[in-house]
Model the fold of this input.
Amino acid sequence: MDIQFRTARAEDISALRELIPLAADALSQGYYTDQQIRSAITHIFGVDSQLVTDQTYYVAVAGSQIVACGGWSKRSTLFGGDQMKGEDDDFLDPARDSARIRAFFVHPEWARRGIGRRLIEMSEDAAREAGFTRMEMGATLPGEPLYAAMGYEVSDRFDIEMPDGVTLPCAHMTKELASRHE
Ligand SMILES: CC(C)(COP(=O)(O)OP(=O)(O)OC[C@H]1O[C@@H](n2cnc3c(N)ncnc32)[C@H](O)[C@@H]1OP(=O)(O)O)[C@@H](O)C(=O)NCCC(=O)NCCS
Done:
């Protein structure tokens, strides 16, 4: 089936709120414990609706079903859905700061078909267009192989402490964007 890629819209958010826990639950197996997955779905993973407003979040659509989402950000927040959003989410300065790669989730039945790769390319193209030369992200362990395949390198590892006391090991990953002409 053909997959269409487009910018996410406000009316997609309810479908994304179903897709994200499903993807996180199925595709985190073997990387995180069931307790870590459950806690992360409650406290971390989710839609950051600011990205939808900013039009920097994308969806992959097969037929009438949204099968994946992911995007980038020109704002400071590194990870997390609306449920963990603080007050400030300031604009980054492309001359000084790295743009963020944000919130990639692929429906388990659509995994390993290059959708994540394509969403990263769309994100990097748009960030480059906005003047950014570097990308950075807080990656989950299940996300790490995709980002590594796309040229991202681990700069350090950290644990996110969730409100229930469970910790989620993550990786800080970065990439220099080559210009489109190189
Ligand atoms: C991470 C995720 C988005 C990957 O999406 P995807 O569409 O399956 O990735 P792609 O098919 O584009 O993979 C591209 C390449 O990345 C690497 N890769 C992706 N997933 C991998 C995995 N589970 N194991 C090993 N390598 C993997 C491979 O090199 C792959 O190329 P190949 O299939 O030709 O070998 C998906 O597994 C997911 O939703 N995971 C759960 C949620 C999550 O943790 N998201 C990351 C948040 S930071």
Summary: The helical segments are 13-27, 34-43, 49-54, 115-129, 144-149. The longest helix spans residues 13-27.
